[in-house]
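Ticket #4471: structure output looks truncated?

Reporter: J.K.
Steps to reproduce: submitted the chain below (599 residues) through the standard prediction queue, then opened the result file.
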Amino acid sequence: MPFAGSFRTMSVPIEDYAIVGDLHTVALVSKGGSIDWLCLPHFDSDATFAALLGTEDHGRWKLAPVEKVDAVSRNYRPDTLVLETEMATPSGTIRIIDFMPTRDAHPVLIRIVEGLEGSVEIKSELRFRFNYGQTKPYVRMLDMGLHVIAGPDGVLVHSPAETTLEDDQIVCDLTVKPGDRFAFQITWHRSWEEPPKQQDPDNALAMCTAMWRGWAESCTHESPYREAVVRSLITLKSLTYQPTGGIIAAATTSLPEQMGGERNWDYRYCWLRDASVTLAALNREGYTQEAKHWRDWLLRAVAGDPEQIQIMYGISGERRLDEYTIDGLPGYANSSPVRIGNAAAGQFQLDVYGEVMGAFQFGRESGIQANEEGWALQQALVEFVESNWNKPDDGIWEVRGDRKHFVYSKVMAWLAAKSAASACRDYGMPGDPKRWDKLATKIHKDVCEKGLDKERGCFTQAYGTNAMDASLLLMVIVGFLPPDDPRMVATVREVQKELSTNGFVLRYRTDATDDGLTGEEGSFVICSFWLVEALAVIGEHDEARVMFERILDVRNDVGLLSEEYDAKGHQMLGNMPQAFSHVGLINAAAAVAAGITNK
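Returned output as attached by the reporter:
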């Protein structure tokens, strides 16, 4: 349903979007048949279609019936990233198949239209706007198709029928009847290179389908939630940059955490934290090759002095992610500014060291052999933690207020030391396990003394505050204290009490935490999954299962989740799809499934 109010933008609900991708970039496709977001040639390149953050004038590709559409249904082909959308009109029904073949060189987006019933007039409206909707291209006709050029970008357009240029749009009209099958295709290339040849659409479709199904077959998860887990795994894989192994946090920038607000961030980069927990989830379900690939990416990205480690990098390990705004885009539902880059790259987040060390530890437990470079990095990381764990930091949520002694950050410092000790003692890595055990004990004691609210018997967001934080749920999940310890049970229940809203969980209360921003935000999807896991760990299996299944119900029609969910307005918020959210689903499914099995 359209948003209430008068927005200048063309915004449709975030949950109306599905994705297709080629392990280099991702396109967002609406239920109405419009591709409103696509960055070429990579995830973090300038957007070629940016209507998602503005209007159709900022670039899109709409392929749909001319007359009113009465009903839309869509799905992914089982265990693939091939999207099928059926549109029914008074005159008949068509199916649109959207996909991006995996590639070695040029990105290709293919849209196949099939006639199912009746006779349907369709229109393809293709408007290129490079540089985030700012640059109009030059269009010329070549023997092999229409050629679109602007600066470094070139795109070859193949249509199954004659095209015209109308108001800066490349338009193609067709009549589709049962048995008809028409293929549209765009191929990006560098403007100074020869335009590439058209791919055979049917062959490309068959190969794309086979590739995804072959990958999905490796999933080892077995539970009533397998279908949801496989869809989340495919989504995580789609956010992986194949050439380097880097995993981005989300496919978009500046989708708002509050409609009309300023909490709009660029998530098309590789957070060490997000990538670490993503790899742990992939590894748990049988995907060790991705873990090895990411380890190699990490070693390249953070090479050098551990004091210079960043919390995030570009998809190839780039360090400069300067943040700026684009005034020419009004933002999704007028939520401005539209941000490119992310200034949080310069923050000090102590928990990241623990996340990375924990990911390496999980890899060892899963049978991934350590290499000399990887262990040298881990030693450098834990030595940095040893010298800096008692300093305030910016925290897991990248608040732009004052630094604090965040409890979760200290817990992850403890995990870093604990993981290093285990690597030496249990896996024969060179080093002094007693040194790291001593450090872990020291941090543990500090947290228990300074991070506990003695009146309520629970841990709090930071030393010296009574505020709660959903990241505290991870204390019981990582085993900071035994799950039946009264302090752990009280922490889980206090987070549930203080941060729950309509059955979902906030990161923190914005009125109780100085995060340097105005406005509010929705519930954070992964935090709700953390509560599911925490409930399962403390033995509340039935409660965990009920909550998990309620969260599953807010996925969109093709199983995708954004960063946040507005439990009052019943709509998705934040960047889409969000790796963190799908990691949470996978881990929570495993916890709930274990509870079912142990009954």
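Triage note (M.O.): checked the attachment and the full token line is present. Residues 407-427 form the longest helix (21 residues).
Status: closed, working as intended.
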